[in-house]
Amino acid sequence: MFEKLMNIDRRIVFTLVALVVIIPMLAPFSIPLTVAEPTQNLYDYIDALPPGSTIMISFDYGPSSFVEPEPMAEAVMKHCFDKEVNVIGITLEIQAVPLADKVMQRVAVEKGAVYGEDYVLLGYRPGDTFVILGMGAEIASVFDSDYLEKPITEIPMLQNITNYDQISLLLVLAAGSTVEDWITYGHTKFDLQIAAGVTGVIVSQMYPYLQTKQLIGLMPGFRGAAEYEKLIDAFGSGTKGINTASLVHLLVIGLVVIGNIAFFVQRRREE
Fold it and tell me: Looking at the structure, do residues 185 and 174 belong to the same domain, yes or no?
């Protein structure tokens, strides 16, 4: 038996991995999950906003990395619409415009939000730094129309919004370095309150900004999305993602343990 374990067919391993990836997608369930303080802080901040407040979400990711930040966007927007908090969407990455449009429309349909009254997507403008600084002075100087080329003067929810003074929070959903750009030029110069949701590979470089209070909250990868979904009691892609990742990790650990046991038992018998 131990010799067979030492020479297990790789196709069996691939099949096991496929099963633990597919099963959580088809059979919804939730693994025990404790909400971390950075995610809780973001939730509490938005939950305390009065109805009619406005937050801005910067969708700074692309097609190759959307699987982690998109569930965060869904969870936060559901929370905002439930609280009657308006959402402005922008992006510093041109390839994110259709991704942002898709997720905003999907959540809006689910929650009955109206474009132009409850949310709006301004889209993309080139020049990261100039976009951030320009909106700090006047949003209309950078975005004179939304992504559909409708003048912002004709969009009801933007009538009383001039610059960051009317934005209660900027949430950066990023797969790159744009969080640092927003902190450097948005928070430092204009005292814009910033939170972030980032992919797992860059989450470690965000924690210093939490310690210095330059970020009021942080959602780390699938876990952050799943934590926020737990807080709003809405099962979604974040929970599915963390379930899949956890089961795959458990499978890999189990195979490593079994392989090592088989190796040492087999070697002891040979000796």
Answer: yes
